[in-house]
Design a protein that fits this description.
By secondary structure, the chain is α/β, with parallel strands linked by helices. The chain is built from six helices and ten strands; from the N terminus they run ββαβαβββββααββαα. Helix 2 links the parallel strand 3 and strand 4. The longest helix has 27 residues. It is globular and about 65 Å long.
């Protein structure tokens, strides 16, 4: 099942069925659903803002990756489950796709004690963890059931993103881009250390963002917006200089442009550090 979160005056859901009632299906069906979501427009010009994918395959598929990249290029956040192949050891890596694609916000599962679920996949691409054990949720035939898995953790994050979009776009009176929303999401996490001394980020919507909340709250959040704009511009410039690295250039030109790339990489990193935000990957 692919769940699409959209926004116009309020949050809405666009549900696209890509799997059968047993949770099986083809990658092509998922790819088609993603492209459909990207191109979809509602009767009042609504558009998709978040794609939530509680599914995964062990083998990376190029068509699936291309669809994910296209979604992100259209300013859509893609959230996916990390998978349930974990061995209880955070030092080992288990991968499911599209979750492990770099462009995706990958979600792992924690229990009520904020410990990583023994079944949850762990790898370097997991961005954050959310509740995934014994979640009371909707089920087949208009019923409800208590379910467990990273597929339960993923909608927590997708819903959180929808709330952040609604709150901050109203506050800032502008449409936020994919990177800005991701940074807001990561501001609403709490870093904790696991029993194996591995640092992870846990979803925490009760946490105030990095900017302090006081009588000058609006001003400070707008300043935060300005810093995020600076970050995005630095990353764009870095990408531009990277494209300028031409194999036909002289060694002197290559060295000069490479230095510019490094400088803008440092600049973007400094901005995130100043804001107290971890780098995405």
């Amino acid at each position: 099942m692919v769940i699409i979160v959209t926004k116009i005056a309020q949050l809405q859901l666009l549900i696209l069925k890509a799997l059968n009632q047993y949770g099986s299906g083809s990658i092509n069906s998922v790819v088609e659903a993603i492209h459909y979501a990207i191109d979809w427009k509602g009767p009042m010009n609504e558009k998709v803002r978040v794609i939530s994918l509680s599914l995964g395959t062990k083998t990376p598929d190029p068509n699936l990756h291309a669809a994910i990249k296209r979604a992100v290029a259209h300013n859509i956040l893609v959230v996916a489950a990390s998978g349930n192949d974990g061995d209880g050891d955070t030092k080992t890596n288990e991968y499911r796709y599209p979750g492990a694609f770099e462009e995706v916000i990958e979600v792992g599962s924690i229990n009520k004690d904020n410990n990583i679920s023994i079944f949850s996949n762990t790898n370097e691409f997991v961005d954050l963890y959310a509740p995934g054990e014994k979640i009371y949720s909707s089920y087949l035939n208009n019923s409800y059931a208590t379910l467990t898995g990273t597929s339960m953790a993923t909608p927590h994050v997708s819903g959180a993103i929808a709330l952040l979009i609604e709150e901050y776009e109203k506050l800032l009176k502008k449409e936020l881009n994919e990177m800005e929303i991701f940074q807001l999401l990561m501001e609403h996490t709490t870093p904790i250390n696991t029993m194996e001394n591995t640092k992870i980020n846990v979803l925490n919507l009760k946490k105030n963002p990095i900017v302090s909340v006081n009588e000058n709250e609006n001003t400070k959040k707008i300043n935060q917006e300005m810093l995020l704009k600076c970050f995005c511009e630095a990353r764009k410039t870095q990408a531009f200089f990277t494209k300028c690295l031409d194999e036909n250039s002289t060694e002197e030109e290559k060295e000069f442009i490479a230095e510019l790339v490094k400088e803008y990489a440092k600049t973007s990193k400094k901005i995130l550090e100043f804001c107290g935000i971890d780098l995405r990957k």
